[in-house]
Records
---
Amino acid sequence: MSIPDLATLHALGAAQQPTYPDSEAVDAAVSKLRTLPPLVFAGECDELKDKIAAVSRGEAFLLQGGDCAETFAGVTADNVRNKLRVLLQMAVVLTYAASVPVVKVGRLAGQYAKPRSSDMETRDGVTLPAYRGDAVNGFDFTPESRVPDPQRLVDVYNSSAATLNLIRAFVTGGYADLRQVHTWNTDFVKESPVGQRYEAVASEIERALTFMQAIGADPVEFHRVDFHSSHEALVLEYEHAMTRIDSRTQMPYDVSGHMVWIGERTRQLDQAHVELLSHIRNPIGVKLGPTTTPDDALALAARLNPLNEAGRLTFITRFGAGRIRDGLPDLVEKVTAEGLQVAWVCDPMHGNTFEASSGYKTRRFDDVIDEVQGFFDVHRSLGTWPGGLHVELTGDDVTECVGGGEDLLEVDLGNRYESVCDPRLNRVQSLELAFLVAEMLRKA
């Protein structure tokens, strides 16, 4: 099975692409990428697809989380470990509450490019190209920094390789041991004023682990976890160069990440992103916002998963707290009525962004929780499975989203606002989200 060449893809039209000033430099970067080893293997992508198939059947829950936009400077052992740690902590709580496996997917090792609502940015009367993520240009507001540079795509590869090396070392080297992760959660419950609310759940998990220890149960799953990578497949040059033919099956896989998704701004049926991802064999996601009609969803499923293969397609909904209960039921009903095999995942972040009076982009923790609750309510009313969460988060104590148990206010945003793009839940807000969703899962 062949994939269309880059020229053919660009001829179809492609939203949210960088405008490179030097085509020879682009060709050189793409040629270099084509010679580099895969970041992930096709067999690992197939394993993730099998796990997402279980999500679509209601036999597993997907937790997908990480930075809004990774940065090259952020590829440090501490940074990667902190993100992994909070995701593992969340997964333990959700696994216990859902009584099904939690599929752990990082929004990392490739999330370096961002779609923007405007091509240009103006500050103090100066207008420059918008920052599109470290994959494209620099964050500094200077003419030199904002020029799209294709060499950055090779830097994306190298940074992603370093991140994946760290992740693999952590999850196989004892860092993901279940007892250790639960101890971290116990510390959170003891030390955090908000954590004490969740003492009952933490105590139940403690008793379950003590029972397992008493009967001598010590499976390998207690000591290591499966962890997969994902990112938005945005810059065509990078994703195309990282698409390879698998020697086992002779099928194309995008070996830049285990799972890739198409964003709300690039899901045009007749354009390049849908065309490229229709050819690869990875599990893929599509973001669906409030403008999505049931016919749109059905058409995307027909185009991206014509064989109706379980685990192949995940619909990631991002409606906003005020729209989820009205907008989601029609989509789920019609897709279910057609017998389509999809996993439904809630992104409660992107529909709830607003600008604070201080100028910072932020989100209210209560809106995030309300959207997740609406997602669960809709699925409960339709008898379908609320399959997972897709969250922008960090393992650090940043001040980017307001509210939560720490009661962060808009005036606090400037204390430690570190995101180069959208606001993320901090460590405490992420853990609080996990405990609150655990309560929803028990009812679901």
Note: The longest strand covers residues 61-66.
---
Amino acid sequence: MSRALNSSQVVNIEDLRRIAQARIPKAVFDYLDGGAEAELTLAENCKAFREVTFRPRGAVAVHECNLKTKILGYEISFPAMLAPVGYSRLMHPEGEVAAARAAGEAGTGYILSSISGHRMEDVRAASRGPVFYQLYLMGGRAAAEAALERARTAGFSGLVITVDTPVAGLRERDPRNGMKQLLGSSPFAKIPYLPDFFAHPGWLISFLLDGGMPKLENIVIPGQGPMKLVDVAAALAESTVTWEDLGWIRELWKGPIIVKGLLTGDDARRSIDEGAAAVVVSNHGGRQLDSVSPTLRALPEVVAAVNGQIEVLMDGGVRRGSDIVKALCLGAHAVLIGRAYAYGLAAAGHAGTARALDILRSDVDRTLRLLGCASVLELSRSYVDVPATWARM
């Protein structure tokens, strides 16, 4: 599998997506691939990148490109980090550990989701790069406080607070595929969906050898132990993060805090007021509220509102290195990639994640050379044209 991933047959992220779709059951693939409701925002996230065009500099010889940048003081090899992706252990048994290891080997950062099947201590130990912890308040404040203490002790580099999940979005593919039944404990409820599992014997064998359905090792409910995967949707509805919560979180966590899930300048300014060191312009990959702005279009408003006071990142729709470059031209310090690496993880674990990062890094390097720009730090709005129809520019 590793040899195939480095062949001429795997040259872009879509190739990894195709391999992942063949390897894992439809329920798991659609969880990774799908979005909320009509999936309008899911599509618009990618479309927005296609609407932005480049303005290259001609007759410029770029012999070597500097792709390095710093995020919250940590130098990364190119301006992309791995976003938090829940249920990663369902995609591949190595899950979050494999992704963190690949990120560290590539010289970049990784963000661990609360909805993870591997212990945060093992994930932190797997990477030689910066690793951040993404906190949900599922399980209540006591569970969150315990997680923060574990993250501090394990040496996590920062905390990511996601603020766009007061409830889980309606991802219509999931109920059609019986995702809840498959995650549940009733063997009878699983019966209608088992043929799809048996049609993917490689995944099924590795899933069973891994012990079956993992619990959420980093959401430990006092007196009950790790939360079960099936409890996530209900737990999200009972654990909305508010601006007031950032107060007590700030008291417990002395490292940098990143607020993720913003689409407006007003929320960006509020994040600064609450002590955030960075914000992530994000619509949760089109998985929460459908029909919101694609993140690339929302990015300039947030960049203008922040006005250089804190760092701005973005995610959503990034499938190529040229997408990363466009985001930087519009003011992002770096991007977070989610599906782009998760397809690789689902396709081949660590090797697939590493291949995704290699593809994107090579894309960024080539794009800069073709633009006639020697460094990601020199990118600016002058390198792109943006449609006149885009508002708030």
Note: The chain has one domain: 2-385.
